[in-house]
Amino acid sequence: MIRKTLIWTTIASSFLGIVFFLLLYQEYRPIASSDVIIERVRSNQFVGDLIYPSNKAGLPVVVFLGGSGGGFGNENEMKSLALNGYAVLSLAYFKEAGLPDKLENIPLEYFEHAFDWLKTRPEVDTNKLVLLGISRGAELALLLGSIYPQVKGVIAYSPGCFILPNATEISSDPDLTASWTLKGKPIPFAPIKRFEESGDKPINYNKYIEPLLSQTDAEEYVIKVENINGPVLLISGARDAVWPASKMAARIEERLKKNGFKHKFGNTVFENGGHDVFMIKDCLPVISSMVFKKIRLTIRGQQYDFNLGGTTGGVIESKIQSRKIVLRFLEGFKSSN
Q1: Residue ranges per domain, the chain?
Q2: Count of alpha carbons within 13 angstroms of residue 283, beta-carbon side
Q3: CA-CA distance, 77 to 100, in Å (whole number)?
Q4: What CATH number labels 35-335?
Q5: pLDDT digits over 155-195, tens only?
Q6: Pairing of the two strands 232-237 and 265-270
């Protein structure tokens, strides 16, 4: 009896091990670099990776802007997007780029240089230039789109509707600085309170952002999304624990409607989704949705954890469905003149 139990336990363990391996492999399997061309740009004007399918020209171009880390996008994700028929410029926008080592006083001209460089590339059609941003990168994408008419579309994952400062500090703090500058001048930002939590427990950022949503005098630091020169797609999770992305997406939609926005826009909210709703590669994201429940950021030398939020099933669904929604949105740029 004991022997039989051991045999069945071994069989069950082996089966589960195989299932785990297959789930892990299909999600994290590498994409062959031979399927795409990768050019690593390390100039004194910007730092980025241009990725595009071989022997193609005049492609719609997607500029990827990551979150508060400011670094490159996951290369497998960028390759996957390129293989769907796009040129992808993955931009680093501090540390790696020779800019400040934290998100403050980043000149928007840095991104303008990248846009201008793309005009020189035969692989790219800059009349079909789309920004894809995640979290703070979504704030940046919406802000850039509102200022630069050469941006023809914006995809914002877990977006913010406000321009935020470099970190959450009290408004009277003399060290409080702008995240972004334009023509050497800081872009006005929302006043945010200093974190009340200690660094040994996850931050609930919602309570710092939500008071802004009830203010009636926030126009100075609200992103003027109605000026974006092309369609806008918003994607968020209602259970986002990093910040109230779905509420801010609703505020963006309200502003677009109020100002008679002439382009198409979509606002998808996943009821059980969290902050992490981004995925382009074609896979079943079971492992990442189960394992990666939080992110860690260093602010003012102190490390803080942020819960991402969402149920495991909700995160899986949001990633799979958002992939379909985004690729459908981008298809419009292939067919447009």
Answers
A1: 1-30, 35-335
A2: 22
A3: 26
A4: 3.40.50.1820
A5: 999 999 999 987 655 555 556 788 999 999 999 998 877 66
A6: parallel
Could you tell me where the beta strands, DSSP code E, fall in the chain?
Answer: 36-42, 47-53, 59-65, 87-92, 106-107, 124-134, 153-157, 180-182, 185-186, 232-237, 265-270, 294-299, 302-307
Residues contacting residue 191 through CB under 8 Å, at least 6 positions apart: 165, 171
Nearest CA to 234 among 127, 114, 329? 329
163: left (phi over 0), alpha (psi -120 to 50) or beta: beta
Strand partners, 233: 155, 266
Q: Which two tokens stand for residue 271?
A: 């009821």
Beta strands 106-107 and 265-270 are unpaired
Sign of CA dihedral 120, 122, 124, 127: positive
CA distances from 18 to 3, 22, 25 (A): 23, 6, 10
Q: What is the pTM of this model?
A: 0.91
Count the Cβ atoms, other than its own, within 10 Å of residue 149. 11
Contact, 195 vs 203, CB < 8 A? Answer: yes
**pLDDT tens digits for 101-126?**
677 889 999 999 999 999 999 999 99
